[in-house]
Structure formats: structure tokens, C-alpha cells
């Protein structure tokens, strides 16, 4: 969906929208390719991750041979270039509008994003997940079922390189973005009191739902590889993070939840 790539390009420096990438590719000739190839891999960095039935000796052999052939020089970890998440001004609103890629597109889509502070610790990040687990179904019931805002309506949490946030994604064919935003705010006003009066059972149900997602087994080697390589991409290297998350979730206390909602 175009709205996702657009949102990411607004929040992460160094990222590009699909339209920007398309404009770059259009008009790219073979002559330009030849010119670019002469400069290809003159400078750069490489990040390696092997997952599967291979010995460490074989892995080292592949890496050393490739690096020697290409000619890339290794650099210290602290010098690796990282994409930076853009810090939105506190207590303010920022509106960005983009036209659809196709002129005949009759739908409009909106992402209402709410940025939180950087993840302070494991429990802060986990509580953030639980909050949006709790909000998910009520948000759908209010915005989709009751208000009939559009066919695609859902609420989800975001974690852009350790910067927490959350938002609502709505695709509508007959409602303006301004109207959708007003209904999202109305949902917060309506649900705030209900959220602050959650029972222990309701909170535990949400926590257990998040625990179940953490316990899901990787269905294949590709899924496992993506999950583990994400730790390398973010320079976190916490390959046992799921075990730590499950342990943290079991220690949660429901009294912290209303305070978190107020902070949001």
C-alpha cells in the first residue's frame, strides 16, 4: 500500500517513497548503467548473516574470499551508518499530503501516527505492545463497524528503530481525511475512560495475547533468518530477545496501564 512507504519516508531519514524510486528508475538507460558500474562498490560496507547448515569455518572462508575479491575495507561497528528516525515536535501536529500514484484511484488513505519517546527499557516497549493490543479491536469496532469509515481500518503499534509509536490506518472511498481524523480523536475520548477502568482479567487477556505472538515458532528458515537479521540491521544483537520479552510480560502489573495511556 502506497501509504506505508510514504509514512516511512516521512519518519525515517534516508528513506524514499515508491514514487521517488519510480522516478529514479524511469529514464535509466544502459549508458547510465555502464557509467555507474565503473563506480560500483568502490566504497561501501557489507553486513553478513548466515543461517543454516554451515560450519563457522566455511562461513569465514566465504566472507574473506568475497571481501578480498570485491575489495571492500571493513570499518568499526560504531562507524556504521544508521538511518535516523525523525523526532516530531511534542504536543504538535504535522500534516503531510501525497497524491495517489494512479490518477484513476478513487480511494484515499490516511495514517494517523502518534510518536512516543524512545524505548526506555524492555518493559516500556512491552507495555507499549500491550496497549495497542488492547486498542486494536475496540478501534476497529468504533471506526469500521460503527462509523463505517472504510473497508480497511486497523490500529497498530510502530517501532521504528527503537522509537515507539502507534497509529490508525484507514482507507476510505467517501470520507475526507479531516473527517477520519475527527473520528479517531473521538475514539480516544470515548475509549479513554473504559481503558482506565480495565479489569485485571481484561489486562491479562491482552498480555497473554502478546505472549502468544512471542511464542509463535518460525514456520521456516526464511522467517527465522528475517527475524534474526533484524537484530543485526538495528545493531541490537539481542538474538534471545523473545525469551526476555516473554519473561517480562509475565511480570506486568495492571496498575501501570492507565498511567501509560495518559502519557500517550
UniProtKB/TrEMBL annotation:
Entries under InterPro entries matching the protein: Metalloenz_LuxS/M16 (IPR011249), Peptidase_M16 (IPR050626), PqqF-like_C_4 (IPR054734)
GO MF, one annotated term: metal ion binding
One Pfam family, short name: PqqF-like_C_4
Keyword Metal-binding: yes
Limits of the Coenzyme PQQ synthesis protein F-like C-terminal lobe domain: 132-227
Keyword Lyase tagged: no
Alphabetical UniProt keywords: Metal-binding
Name of the protein: Coenzyme PQQ synthesis protein F-like C-terminal lobe domain-containing protein
Amino acid at each position: 500500500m502506497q501509504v506505508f512507504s510514504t509514512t516511512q519516508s516521512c519518519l525515517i531519514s534516508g528513506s524514499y517513497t515508491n514514487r521517488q524510486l519510480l522516478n529514479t528508475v524511469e529514464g535509466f538507460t544502459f549508458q547510465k548503467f555502464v557509467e555507474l558500474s565503473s563506480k560500483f562498490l568502490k566504497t561501501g560496507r557489507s553486513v553478513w548473516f548466515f543461517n543454516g547448515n554451515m560450519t563457522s569455518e566455511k562461513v569465514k572462508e566465504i566472507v574473506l574470499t568475497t571481501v578480498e575479491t570485491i575489495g571492500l575495507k571493513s570499518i568499526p561497528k560504531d562507524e556504521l551508518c544508521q538511518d535516523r528516525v525523525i523526532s516530531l515536535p511534542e504536543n504538535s501536529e504535522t500534516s503531510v499530503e501525497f497524491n495517489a500514484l494512479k490518477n484513476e484511484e478513487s480511494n484515499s488513505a490516511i495514517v494517523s501516527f502518534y510518536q512516543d519517546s524512545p524505548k526506555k527499557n524492555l518493559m516500556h516497549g512491552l507495555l507499549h505492545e500491550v496497549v495497542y493490543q488492547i486498542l486494536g479491536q475496540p478501534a476497529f469496532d468504533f471506526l469500521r463497524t460503527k462509523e463505517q469509515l472504510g473497508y480497511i481500518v486497523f490500529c497498530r503499534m510502530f517501532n521504528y528503530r527503537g522509537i515507539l509509536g502507534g497509529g490508525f490506518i484507514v482507507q476510505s472511498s467517501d470520507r475526507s481525511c479531516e473527517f477520519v481524523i475527527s473520528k479517531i480523536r473521538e475514539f480516544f475520548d470515548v475509549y479513554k475512560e473504559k481503558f482506565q477502568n480495565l479489569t485485571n482479567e481484561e489486562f491479562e487477556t491482552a498480555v497473554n495475547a502478546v505472549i502468544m505472538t512471542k511464542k509463535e515458532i518460525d514456520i521456516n528458515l526464511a522467517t527465522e533468518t528475517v527475524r534474526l537479521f533484524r537484530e543485526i540491521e538495528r545493531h541490537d544483537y539481542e538474538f534471545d530477545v523473545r525469551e526476555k520479552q516473554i519473561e517480562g510480560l509475565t511480570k506486568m502489573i495492571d496498575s501501570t496501564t492507565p498511567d501509560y495511556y495518559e502519557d500517550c
